[in-house]
Amino acid sequence: MACNTSNNTSIKILSIKNNSDNSNIALSKIVSSTKMIPLETNDSILIGEINKILCKNNYIYVSDGRTLFKFDNNGHFVSKINKVGAGPNEYTSITDFQICSNDKVWILSRKDKRLCNYSWNGILENRIRLNFWINNICLLTDNSMLLFTGNETEGGNKYQLKKIDLSTKNIVDNYIKIDNERSKYLFVKSTNHFNYENNSKNGFFFDIFNDTIYGIYSNKIRAKYYIDINKKNIPNSFFKKNYDNVMIFFQTLFKNEYAYGTVLFGETNKNFICSYYYNKLCHISLISKYKYKVNDFTNITDDVNLMNYPITLTSIPLFIQDNDELIISIQATDIMDYAEKNLKDKDISKLKQSIRYTNEDQNPIIIFSKLK
User: pLDDT tens digit string along 30-72?
Assistant: First the structure.
């Protein structure tokens, strides 16, 4: 089976049969449904480089690090929050965000060591100052949140995860001790560290340099899965060596043929989905729960929405939602460059209509694909 049980019966091993070469798969083979949504564009709605996409309550929330945009599920603009500045009611940047049940927004501004809660009219409803660095956040309830600190030990921090009570602004629990050796050099940020289990209040926590996937429950966090990438995982001994900084760490890492980097993890009814890096390429693996079958690929051919447009996973933003949807963001200009080189005039015209192409400044095209 692709999924085995380790000596520790509480942890299951998910085995990936790594394909070291570039591998391609048709989108239609890995999804049960897919939908393409062009995001509305005008002079006041120009999205920069996307750092997070979140879907909730039939709305699409998109952050480019400065502005948080809200679209309906057809891509039409609804509202935005842009409070960049140095004032008490502003933020330096949007490092991460979460949406409350009342549609108010928690924004993490890492540089400010600050959590800000805004309504969609731009009014600051709440603010929490922190004495340590935070990389990512995960809303558990409207009154509790997980904070991911990475390997940052400033302020006497000793744990990667902290649970905060948003009503009292107090840290109420800590999880996963920081490795002292890694804290000296391993400061790596990733857009994704959390995902909810489908149709559940539970969730997952994963880290780019930890092969263990942790389950998030109402009152605890425990190791749940171990990712075995064809025995090519980075050995623990590699992390114990002395590196002057993270650049030297990566230079040394790239001299070895190690696989690493869980930046996506999810669980559907039929499969586990897991991403990793090997030879500087991003791979996605679909690991069957019921039979020994693993689809491992670095490229997706969109044979459903975009007339066989080739999606290279390494070069585009990827996100996964708790409803088993993989979200892929593609620049409209990249799609049209492909069309001009590979399609006939009549097909180019059809593609322009389907992506509502306007000009080279058009906002990204978002593809939502429900995984099998």
Answer: 999 999 999 999 988 999 999 999 998 899 999 999 999 999 9
Rounded alpha-carbon distances, angstroms, from residue 1 to 171, 262, 271: 41, 21, 12
In angstroms, the Cα distances linking 113 to 155, 269, 338 are 11, 38, 42
Collapsed DSSP state (helix, strand, coil) of residue 208:
coil
- Which amino acid belongs to residue 347? D
CA 262 to mean position of chain CA atoms: 10
**Read out DSSP for 60-114?**
EEEE-SS-EEEEETTS-EEEEE--BSSSTT-BS--SEEEE-TTS-EEEEEGGGTE
CA gap 284, 319 in Å, rounded: 12
Q: Which range has the worst mean pLDDT, 14-23, 44-53, 60-69, 349-358?
A: 14-23
Nearest to 367 by CA among 331, 329, 336, 335: 329
Tens digits of residue pLDDT in 100-126: 999 999 999 999 999 999 999 999 999
The helix/strand/coil state of 251 is helix
Q: What is the C-alpha R_g of the chain?
A: 21
Residue carrying the six token digits 């049969």? 17
Q: What pLDDT is recorded for position 2? A: 42
Q: 0.85 exceeded by the pTM? A: yes
SS3 176: strand
- With vertex at residue 159, the alpha carbon angle to CA 235 and CA 326, rounded to the nearest 5 degrees, is 70
Helix (H) or strand (E) holding 348: helix 345-354
